Amino acid sequence: MANWYTADTHFGHENVIPFCGRPFRHAGHMDSVLIENMWKVVQPEDDLWIIGDFAVGPKAKDPDYLNILFGQLPGAAKHLIIGNHDLAPTLDLPWDSVSHLTEVPDGADGLYHTLCHYPMITWNGARKGSLQLFGHVHNQWQGSRNAVNVGVDQWDFRPVSFREVVRRAENLKVNKHWSDVER
Fold first, then answer.
1. Residues 3, 104: Cα–Cα separation, whole Å
2. Cis preceding linkage at 94, omega within 30
3. How are strands ordered across the β-sheet holding 132-134?
4. CA end-to-end distance (rounded Å), the chain
5. Residues 7/56, Cβ–Cβ less than 8 Å
6. How confident is the model at residue 47 (pLDDT cuts 50, 70, 90)?
7. Predicted structure pTM score
8. Which of 169, 182, 124 has the alpha carbon at shortest distance from 142?
9. Domain ranges of the chain
10. In sequence order, what are the residues at sequence separation of 6 or more whose Cβ sits closer than 8 angstroms to the Cβ of residue 118?
């Protein structure tokens, strides 16, 4: 079993395409590619973590659309970390967990890593090497050495493994405010 992370899928959202320069003809095309890319990496026994903004716009208010979409998601367990666009009926889908913030053990380090839709400056275990995985800022910012944007706009529109997050984190700069909050 593996954990896979993604954020800011914005299923059904036509306006996110021009807003973020996504390479899709329309929201239906985007939805299909995102689901297809999930199936390329997420195995039946894996957990899929959506770190906010699952679906947006008029379609996000349609329970039938959402149920069909949810039924296409791969993995044994599907988790939602609530983003600013996640409202009912998205919250009413049969997620295995729904929260604003959670800590997940992943990687060989034995640490719990923090998942929150919004980038944060510090979190539990940050001094010990715990990472934060976030979304919300789309293609504006990859993150920093210890907080990585796992949004689809940063990762070729696919979920990522913790190992990929760690590799990217190693190549990012230290957050310029890190020494203001952690010593």
1. 9
2. no
3. 101-105, 112-116, 132-134, 147-149, 143-144
4. 36
5. no
6. very high
7. 0.97
8. 169
9. 3-181
10. 52, 134, 136
DSSP collapsed to 3 states, the chain = CCEEEEECCCECCCCHHHHHCCCCCCHHHHHHHHHHHHHHHCCCCCEEEECCCCECCHHHHCHHHHHHHHHCCCCCEEEEECCCCCCCCHHHCCCCEEECEEEEECCCCCCEEEEECCCCCCCCCHHHCCCEEECCCCCCCCEECCEEECEHHHCCCCCEEHHHHHHHHHCCCCCCCHHHHCC
Q: How far, in Å, are 53, 67, 89, 182 from residue 70 at the CA level?
A: 13, 5, 12, 39
What does the block give as tokens for 53? 């903004």
Give 3-181's CATH code, choosing from 3.40.50.150, 3.60.21.10, 3.40.720.10, 3.40.640.10: 3.60.21.10
Query: What are 123-169's pLDDT values in tens digits?
Result: 999 999 999 999 999 999 999 999 999 999 999 999 999 999 999 99
Give the C-alpha separation, 103 to 115, whole Å.
6
